[in-house]
Structures are given as structure tokens and as C-alpha cells.
Amino acid sequence: MKKFNIRRVLLLLLLLVGIAVILRTTLFANYVVDGKSMEPTLFDGNLLMVNKFVYELSDVNRFDVIVFRASKEEDYVKRVIGIPGDRVEYKHDKLYINGEFIEERFLESYKEASSVEKFTNDFTLQQITGEIEVPEGNLFVLGDNRQDSLDSRSFGFISNDQIVGKVDITYWPLTEKVNK
After folding, report:
1. What's the pLDDT score for residue 17?
2. pLDDT tens digits, residue range 164-175?
3. Candidate list 2, 3, 36, 37, residue with the active-site label
4. Rounded distance, CA 159 to CA 125, Å?
5. 159 is catalytic
6. Which residues does 59 contact at the CB level (< 8 Å), separation at least 6?
7. What's residue 103's pLDDT?
8. Which residues does UniProt assign to the signal peptide (predicted)?
9. Is 137 helix (H, G, I), strand (E, B) or coil?
10. Residue 24: is its pLDDT beyond 70?
11. Where are the beta strands (DSSP E) in 39-124?
């Protein structure tokens, strides 16, 4: 009778491990942050768990931190600033979306610690992309370290098709977490 129970437990464990592996490979991905473009939210070497399935169920939200395919060889991690229909503008180091000031709380600590007078240079979406608003099916993304980030100010909009997923968890180092 004991052999039967042990076999059942082992079979159940094997089944659970198999399910976990399948879920892990289809729903989540691991990424390592490379560079300083997302400081102070994410740091070089942080290990991230990216939810690859969330945007099948819901829309991308402003200020989500996402991973997207920048090229065949590289993926980038950035923060969504503009969603379809948004008119994005920076004036006097402040973000305006559709003419309304939007506070970026996730940048406060970095701005306070920075010796830079102007954290984000003034621009309008039209100056950078030639578009007045973010087109349907596209996003405008920025790195949190505005002084040292290759983002939509350089390469323009990203397509929803480029999105790998949403950064949900920073699991190394253990004390870090994604600022919202």
C-alpha cells in the first residue's frame, strides 16, 4: 500500500513540475536589465519576471514598464508614457498628456538626487515623431533615466506587436521592486 502512495505522490509531483514548466515558458520570461536607462526603477543587472500573457487579457496602461523587441537581437525595457490617442508634451520638466499635467511620482527620488537642472528636455510629440498624437496600435515609451536613455525620443513609436510583456516582478536583488 505504501508503494502505491509513493508512486501517486511522485506522479503528481512530476505532473505539477511539467505544468509549471509549460506555464513558465508560455506565460512568463526572464530578463536581465542591461544599462542605466531605467534608473531609479530598475538597475543594471536586475533580474526581471515578464508577464507575456497579460496584454492578451487587458490593454497596455500608461506608466506600465514593458519589455519590447527593439530589433532581432535586442529587447528593451522602458516605461509607457503615451498610449493611442495621447498628445504628449514636456514643458519645464513636466509631463503633459492631452494638455493636462501628469505627475510622475516614480521619478521624484531620482530628480531630488540628481544634480541636473532639467531632468527631461522640452519636446512635443510632433517635434519628435511628426505626429500630433500616438497612432492606434502604437506606444510612446521613455526610460526613467531621461538623461541616459535610448527611447521613443530617438526611435519613435513602438508597435503593440513589438511588446514581449509587462514587467511584474524584479526578483534579483530581492529588495528591489518595480515602482509604479
Report:
1. 84
2. 999 988 777 755
3. 37
4. 16
5. no
6. 83
7. 95
8. none
9. coil
10. no
11. 47-51, 65-69, 75-82, 88-91, 94-97, 100-102, 123-124
pLDDT band at 177 (very low <50, low <70, confident <90, very high): low
Element (H, E) at 3: helix 2-27
Q: Which domains does the chain have, with CATH numbers?
A: 28-172 (2.10.109.10)
pTM for this structure? 0.83
What is the grid cell recorded at 115? 544634480
What pLDDT, in 10s, does the model give residues 101-126? 999 998 887 777 777 778 899 999 99
Grid coordinates belonging to 108: 521624484
Residues 166 and 169: their CA atoms lie apart, in Å, by 9
**Whole-Å CA distances, 163 to 65, 86, 99:** 11, 19, 27
Tell me how far apart the alpha carbons of residues 169 and 56 are, in angstroms, rounded to a whole number: 18
Residue 37 annotated in active site? yes
Task: Give the residue from 106, 82, 77 showing the smallest Cα distance to 170.
Answer: 77
Residue position matching grid coordinates 509604479: 180
Catalytic, out of 36, 78, 109, 180: 78
Q: Which amino acid is at 69?
A: R
Q: Residue written as cell 514636456?
A: 90
